[in-house]
Amino acid sequence: MAEPSDPGVLRESATFPPETIAEIQRAASEGLYDIRGWGAKRRLPTFDDLLLLGASLSRYPLEGYRERCDTNVTLGTRFAKQPIELKIPVTIAGMSFGSLSANAKEALGLAATEMGTSTTTGDGGMTDEERVASKTLVYQVLPSRYGLNPDDLRRADAIEIVVGQGAKPGGGGMLLGLKVSDRVADMRTLPAGIDQRSASRHPDWTGPDDLTIKIRELREITDWQKPIYVKMAATRVQYDVQLAVKAGADVIVLDGMQGGTGATQDVFIEHVGIPTLPAVRQASDTLQELGMHRKVQLVVSGGIRSGADVAKALALGADAVSIGVAALIALNCNRPLYLEDYAALGTAPGYCHHCQTGRCPVGVTTQDPELEARLEPKAAARRVRNYLSTMVLEAQTLARACGKSHMLNLEPEDLVALTPEAAAMARVPLAGTNWIPGLEASD
Question: CB 3.0 to 4.6 Å from 320: which of 83, 89, 315, 368, for a disulfide?
């Protein structure tokens, strides 16, 4: 008789593996959809599916210790009187005070300032700590309008109109009551301790032409000084980019489905939107077709983790990238500390996605004073600064190897793909061939 552990006896279903069975049974017991933080966990095409072609005989590499590879980028050159000058092409994405602790927001601002880059507010308005810590601060205007006021618009260095977020295209933000402290509630004009759900679209919009009106209103409020960004989730990229350019955006921020969130439905995170890899190429190609590439800057976010990701995104046409989850990991997210607190959440370091609970063991995504105190802003800022510095050094190393004296000189010709799927999405040749799926091969 075969033992129960014999693979010939025990065979899981491909359609209903154990995790799917567990989710069906949870839903049957609770009658509610699952809400969690972080980003998609399913395997998706990423920048790991691309390789850079370093220089050898047919290309001339740069000497890393003697020849410069510049990293600066200017955002908002189209209409703004005061474009944003950044020393590096890596920015900090919008994450709200409420979703993050005040200490986390301050630490991100301090790190961005040290590195000569920008950070972004998120839903719920601007805190004084964040404004003081951030030399360059982008102020988000979201459908909720929580915390929005003209004075803070003028205090900001750029304005980002949020149309969509990569983790939840077509959906609004969530902040569960456990994180709606008295201060958060006061900033958002909400009752404390009550779940907050943001609108999925701007209340004064009935169509894309209203974006033109909104951009003009914001320019008039800020005397045409501040760059206006439009942030969109990666879905119908070609059409959305065309409409944003037509409406007068200075900068387009494109968020792929690997982008994280403080809280939303798991079904959104895993099943809506497209990955960052195909999205960036669609956006840059659309800008080139419009004659607006490098005139309207493109910032790409969603799953950016390393200097290699940065270099590949720039090679596909981005002017800069933005990081969210990676910055939180640098702060201490999922670090193996306070193991009993992770266990109390039913998880462990490296697997935690419980941002929505407000019980973050390391003080990043919480409003609990005792937990928040575990994140010391200056020490946390130093970790994020080190991480950003490493990313930039890695990206410079790769750009020099491709013979580029500026990171923005990277181009699709510097890339090949490891899989036919990645080759089709990024529109670069499959490695070792001149074949781009969907296009005729060149001779």
Answer: 89
